Amino acid sequence: MKLEFHGHDERYTVEQSLLNLFPGELPVYGPILPEDENWAVVTWREDEERGHALVELCWRGEAVSSGYEVPLSGTPYEREGCRRYAVGAAFFRAYQDITGNTPPWGMLTGVRPDKLVTEALAAGKPPEAARELLEERYFVTPRRAALALETGTAAFEAAKSLGPRDVAVYIGIPFCPTRCAYCSFVSQSVEKSFSLVEPYVEALTAEIAAGGRMAREAGLRVRAMYMGGGTPTTLSAAQLDRVLAAFEAAFGPALDGCGEITVEAGRPDTITAEKLAVLKARGVRRVSVNPQTMEENVLRAIGRRHSPGDIGRAMELAEKLGFPHVNMDLIAGLPEDTPEGFRRSLERCLQFGTDNVTVHTLALKKGSRILLEGLSIPGPEAVGEMLDCAEPALRRAGYAPYYLYRQKYMSGSFENIGWTRPGGECLYNIYIMSELCSILSFGAGGSTKMVDPSRRLIQRRFNPKFPKEYTERPEKALSNQADFAAFYAG
Question: Do residues 375 and 472 share a domain?
């Protein structure tokens, strides 16, 4: 879509609105020609007291215009915020006028829509005011606003127990048995990169040892650890034991307040009794068994080798070993799936009695086989049916939503939601999604996030993406750790 600006340069706001409301449309800058069918002219006018945004939008040859006026006051930064909001609101209203649609999350384009609720509650506003903020200011539908109120409240409650030097730890294992059709993560198929695994474990345990020393010296306390991937259980039992032992030894007293250690076991075809026994012996209290679907044809379509029966056997092993918490993931919108198939998958997961179920919406990620090979996927209406059946079924079974987030290019502009029975919340998920505390990340592709809620300050550092690069550049991870320590030195 061609874009033309007058009186402002709110490029980011308009581009994010475009990507959110018109999936697949990319911004193009240049003169609008008579033959152009998709374009927008965004104009801003202001005086000392008021500002006015006007959006003239043409879509497939049909044109509309919509304005939005806001009062202007405060610092230049605050006035800029008013301008950004007015431009986004005018663009959204023009979209509504020309399509007749209201996306579930309204004009919100960010990953964490419920963060607005958490911030409102922290500022002393009542829950109803937080919900109204979403509906009236950001045009969020009542159903999504209600969901955000629940998950935002869960984050508000979780934040109360965090101290200024409390952190969480992430350990990344970027290997999988095969690459799923929907995946664009930097992960290696073990079949093709077996020789990288052992050097990776060596580099990872060394990084963890250095990071643990840094955390102890800085007086930090680890509240939760999450080992994800990839698929951590592509490692052997002995390798898993080495990584977890390195974590225990490195952090030592810093783990005294850590009541949650999670390992994303993930793929049922990598889960064995021996590996689960290692996890249990090392204090892991939560594991994930992630079918994504219980439909045989959908498993084949996404490139998974396990069967629904393998999922059942993995759940039996987890139950036999007595893990207090087990999570299962499902994805709405996978290739070859249908609303009826998704409903069957959810019903079978609920029969296992797991206390956590995460319902993801398929995100069409660049580099995934779905896009590269043009695989057939359900449309937004079918995905909406899947999500519409999930919420009441989960609530009837005693689950409530406790964290949510959105991604770019999601089917139908929906969301991912974690559901839990009482007492089964994964605190790490709340911490990272609501940005409540710093996340110290280890491993290839690790994204360390330094968070100071009191100053509303967030800084990020990234490890090398690829396993080989990571093993060959330990100095990058050490540099990130030095920055982490400096963040807490002031």
Answer: yes
H helices of 218-272, in order, are 237-251
> For the chain, what is the largest distance between any 2 Cα atoms, rounded to a whole number of angstroms?
70
- 132-175 pLDDT, tens digit per residue, is 999 999 999 999 999 999 999 999 999 999 999 999 999 999 99
Q: Which residues of 161-176 are buried (b: 16+ CB within 10 A; e: fewer)?
A: ebeeebbbbbbbbbbb
- As a whole number of angstroms, the distance between CA 323 and CA 310 comes to 18
In a domain, 104, yes or no: no
Q: Which helix (H) or strand (E) holds 402?
A: strand 400-405
Q: Are residues 9 and 78 in the same domain?
A: yes
Q: How many separate domains does the chain show?
A: 3
Q: What is the pLDDT of residues 317-359, one digit of tens each?
A: 999 999 999 999 999 999 999 999 999 999 999 999 999 999 9
Contacts with 123 (C-beta within 8 Å, 6 or more apart), sequence order: none
Residue 105: inside a domain: no
pLDDT tens digit sequence for 173-182: 999 877 776 6
Q: Are residues 282 and 356 in the same domain?
A: yes
Q: For 181-193, what is each residue's pLDDT tens digit?
A: 667 655 555 555 6
Segments forming the whole domain that contains residue 370 = 159-485
* CA–CA gap between residue 62 and residue 37 (Å, rounded): 8
Do β-strands 28-29 and 457-462 pair in parallel, antiparallel, or remain unpaired? unpaired
107 inside domain: no
Cβ–Cβ < 8 Å for 290, 177: no
**Rounded Cα distance, 390 and 416, in Å:** 12
Q: Residues 274, 404: one domain?
A: yes
Domain membership flag for residue 490: no
Return the DSSP state at 365: -
Q: Which residue has the tokens 């006035």?
A: 79
**Percent of the chain residues topping a pLDDT of 90:** 85
Q: Which residues contact 459 (CB under 8 A, 6 or more apart)?
A: 449, 450, 483, 487
Q: Does 171 lie in the same domain as 87?
A: no
Residues 422 and 383 placed together within one structural domain of the fold? yes
CA pair distance 128, 130, nearest whole angstrom: 5
| Averaged pLDDT for residues 56-76 | 96
Average pLDDT, the chain: 93
Beta bridge partners of 56: 41, 65
Q: The dihedral of CA 102, 107, 110, 116: what is its sign?
A: negative
CA 93 to chain centre: 27
pLDDT value at residue 190: 55
183 with 316, same domain? yes
Bridge-based pairing state of the strands 356-361 and 62-71: unpaired
